[in-house]
Design a protein that fits this description.
Elements lengths: L2 H25 L5 H22 L7 H22 L6 H30 L1
Helix pairs in contact: 1-2, 1-4, 2-3, 3-4
C-alpha cells in the first residue's frame, strides 16, 4: 500500500470514528471501548471492505469514494444491527439514513482537506 493510500485509509477510518464518537457522546452520554466496539468496528469493517473493493484508497476518485461510502456504510450499519439483534424496522432505516448523510459529510470534508494539503 502506498503512503497516500495509507493516509487515505487512516483518514477515512478516522472520519468514521468521529461519527461513532459523536453518536456515543450524544446518545449514551459517555464514550467507552464497549460502545466503540459496538458502533465503530462494524462500520469500519464494512467500509474498509468496500473501500478495498472499490479501490477508494489505491485509485482514489469521487466515484470510488461514493461506491465505498454507500456500500460500506450500509454494510456496516447492517452488521451492527445484526450484532445487536435489531429488527429491520423504520428506526433502523432512520439510523441508516442519518449514518449515510453524516458520514458522507465527514468523508467529504476529510478528502477535500487531504486534497488541499497534498497540493501544497
Amino acid at each position: 500500500m502506498s503512503r497516500r493510500a495509507a493516509v487515505l485509509a487512516a483518514g477515512d477510518l478516522a472520519a468514521l470514528l468521529v461519527f461513532a464518537l459523536v453518536g456515543l457522546a450524544s446518545h449514551d452520554g459517555a464514550v467507552g471501548m464497549r460502545g466503540l466496539a459496538r458502533d465503530w468496528i462494524p462500520l469500519a469493517v464494512g467500509y474498509a471492505a468496500a473501500a478495498l473493493l472499490a479501490r477508494a484508497w489505491t485509485q482514489p476518485s469521487v466515484v470510488a469514494l461514493l461506491r465505498a461510502w454507500l456500500t460500506g456504510v450500509t454494510a456496516g450499519v447492517v452488521l451492527r444491527g445484526l450484532a445487536l439483534g435489531r429488527d429491520a424496522d423504520t428506526r433502523q432505516l432512520q439510523f441508516l439514513l442519518v449514518s449515510l448523510v453524516v458520514t458522507l459529510v465527514l468523508l467529504s470534508v476529510w478528502r477535500a482537506l487531504e486534497h488541499v494539503l497534498r497540493r501544497r
